[in-house]
Amino acid sequence: MHRITILGISEKQMYSLTIHIIIYVILCTIITFTISGNLLVIIIISHFRQLHTPTNFLTLSLAVADFLLGGIVMPPSMIRCWYFGDLFCKIHVSLDITLSTASLIHLLFISIDRYCAVCYPLHYQTKITSCAAGIMIAISWIFAGIYGCFMCLNIQGLDGLQNHKSQCLGGCLYISSPLSGLVSSLLCFYFPGFIMLGIYTNIFIVASRQAKIIKQTEQRGQTAKEKKMAVSMKQEKKAARTLGITIGCFFICWLPFFLYSFINTFVQCQTSAFVTELLYWFGYLNSAFNPFIYAFMFNWFRKSFQIILYGKIFKPNSSRINRTTEVEAE
């Protein structure tokens, strides 16, 4: 008989004080970096008008999803002893699913944006406008919200599943049936993931072909128009490389959890709540890593951070500061 998806409150697990302190220090560090890093991205892109491009609007919305994940979802997830009852646990899990899904869909649309920029550079500015970016952002949030609410509505209550005589109910964990786990993994990870891999493979092939063309024109001497095109191609290639790192980071962080979920669909193995929580938090790391990828790869991020650090952001017309983007040669 098919088991419906339920929300589980795991049994309380006892650890020594030292282990508790180490766990909380690590988790608080992850939360701090997630919130501060993504907040910095939000401030930088929102404030500086030069950065108001369709690609950066998608990046901004992704940072909002990761920021909310770090500020709203991660702190309750850190609680080892759940005192807040069934209803808040359902709301927490629903927000977790919604924001994690929104982050994934944003990455998918950013991949599509980069694909258009690299593979169809002449039509990019007419096809990918701010309006188009707004539509992609709206689709990301609407789909994630509907999916999160759907999963919440399919959660069974906990009456009769636990003995509630103790004040501590354990940790708030999402437990899915085999069929639900399989559908969720395919819909929210494997299908979008394979699409992103296919898109990036195509981008890499086209970018490599463009690099050869640039090299040939440099050898025979470039016209002014060709030099301008070469600079644009290098910028897009660098952005594509950054996308590849971002996608790679996403797969490294979330693959263990979804692989475990996929295997558990066919092989019903009993694992401790600690293992499940560990895989969850390893996935959460993706939201903390994204801002640092921008920091290492993009000069606009580093220069904007310096402006904020030195307090120049509070000067009049600071939003109109022009920061020339340096293109690094491959």
UniProtKB/TrEMBL annotation:
Keywords for this protein: Cell membrane, Disulfide bond, G-protein coupled receptor, Glycoprotein, Membrane, Receptor, Transducer, Transmembrane, Transmembrane helix
InterPro entries: GPCR_Rhodpsn, GPCR_Rhodpsn_7TM, TAAR
Segments passing through the bilayer: 21-45, 57-79, 91-112, 132-155, 189-207, 243-263, 278-301
Domain (G-protein coupled receptors family 1 profile) ranges: 37-294
SUPFAM superfamilies: Family A G protein-coupled receptor-like (SSF81321)
MF (Gene Ontology): trace-amine receptor activity
Subcellular location, principal: membrane
GO cellular component: plasma membrane
Pfam families, per database record: 7tm_1
Compartment(s): Cell membrane
Annotated membrane topology: Multi-pass membrane protein
Family of this protein: Belongs to the G-protein coupled receptor 1 family.
Protein's recorded name: G-protein coupled receptors family 1 profile domain-containing protein
Organism of this sequence: Erpetoichthys calabaricus
Organism classification: Eukaryota, Metazoa, Chordata, Craniata, Vertebrata
